[in-house]
Write a structure and sequence with these properties.
The longest helix is centred in the middle third of the chain and has 4 residues. The chain folds into 3 domains: 114 residues, no CATH class; 112 residues, Jelly Rolls; 75 residues. It has 1 helix and 26 strands. A 6-stranded antiparallel beta sheet has the order 18-23-20-21-22-19, with no helix packed on it. Strands 11, 12, 15, 24 and 26 form a 5-stranded antiparallel beta sheet that branches. Strands 13, 14, 16, 17 and 25 form a 5-stranded antiparallel beta sheet that branches. It is mainly beta and 315 residues long. A hairpin with a 3-residue loop joins strand 2 and strand 3. Helices cover 1% and strands 44% of the residues.
């Protein structure tokens, strides 16, 4: 561990790299404790009148060499301070950066401000669409919770043909072990989607990103003309650009309309399918890993499916 400290005395009207001319005396102490682990900044405004006091500190010896700490005393007469901490590689700090700010004229003791990288508390991973052929099984990638305690899983699935389908089975498995494949247990099975999908070709050339209505040439039968809202699946020629939308209305043999604009542009004759579903599953606390296996052998002569899994990890 390395310790070093520097003291600077700043007199009246002396121009600094800390933010311009200051008309009062300030002491600034910068102390680096155990490089690449903690940076501690103490700033004392002895006259409590500075309108803008700014300190930039760079840890040149850490593995994250560009670590600026900006401290702005925007209105010290009432003691509020704005603190921004940027860390290009916050993982080496386990997400926690600590800044201590002292206002000597405040009636309260020195203020301790803890600032956490938002990724320390929550990580969101949005999956990509993949196809699982009829009568095939797809083994899901194991996700480790690591230091996180809670996981929420999101599963999207849609039929990709007009073949009658009696269901695709999703096996959500959890493990109490960090490694190995001998301790997988089924948390809960999900069966779906079920039915015979109706496909419709998009006639827009192209269907622009942000669109909420698609023109169709054929009949809007199947589930397009049923009462109520439902998810439909736009299967793009580039599977990563596929997406689900929430169907809200249709004009017979003319168009279909959904709730929110599309995320992507889709070329003419891109197909839509009207049987799709979404599920949300909460992974219990204490679980070490989870995965989603897709069993499309449940119906041996059914349809292929497109699947996407996403998750959120939280502390």
């Amino acid at each position: 561990m390395r310790k070093c400290a520097f003291w600077f005395f700043i007199g009246a009207t002396f121009v600094l790299t800390l933010g311009g001319a200051l008309s009062v005396e300030h002491w600034i102490r910068v102390q680096e404790i155990n490089e690449a682990v903690h940076l501690k900044v103490d700033i004392n405004d002895v006259n409590n009148v500075a309108s803008s006091l700014r300190a930039n500190i760079w840890d040149v010896n850490s593995s994250a060499p560009n670590l600026p700490v900006n401290i702005n005393a925007v209105n010290t007469s009432t003691s509020p301070l704005n603190v921004k901490i940027y860390d290009a590689n916050s993982s080496i700090y386990d997400g926690q950066l600590k800044t201590e700010i002292y206002d000597v004229n405040s009636s309260t003791p020195p203020l301790n401000v803890k600032i956490y990288d938002v990724n320390y508390f929550r990580v969101t991973t949005v999956g990509t669409w993949t196809n699982v052929a009829q009568n095939a099984v797809s083994e899901g990638t194991a996700v480790s919770l690591g230091g996180y305690t809670k996981a929420t899983l999101f599963i999207d699935c849609a039929l990709t043909s007009e073949t009658a389908h009696t269901g695709t089975s999703f096996h959500i498995e959890v493990s109490p072990s960090e490694t190995g494949d001998t301790d997988w247990y089924t948390l809960q099975p999900i069966l779906g989607p079920i039915g015979t999908a109706n496909s419709e070709a998009i006639m827009n050339n192209p269907l622009a990103a942000g669109s909420t209505t698609a023109t169709v040439a054929a009949s809007t039968t199947g589930l397009y003309d049923d009462d109520g809202v439902r998810f439909i699946y736009i299967k793009d020629g580039t599977i990563a650009n596929s997406e689900m939308v929430l169907l809200v209305s249709h004009s017979a043999n003319t168009s279909v309309t959904w709730l929110d604009g599309t995320a992507n542009t889709h070329i003419q004759n891109t197909l839509m399918y009207d049987i799709a579903r979404r599920d949300v599953v909460t992974i219990p606390k204490g679980i070490k890993r989870f995965r989603v296996n897709v069993d499309n052998t449940y119906d041996s002569d059914g349809s292929g499916v497109d699947v996407r899994t996403s998750y959120i990890l939280e502390r």
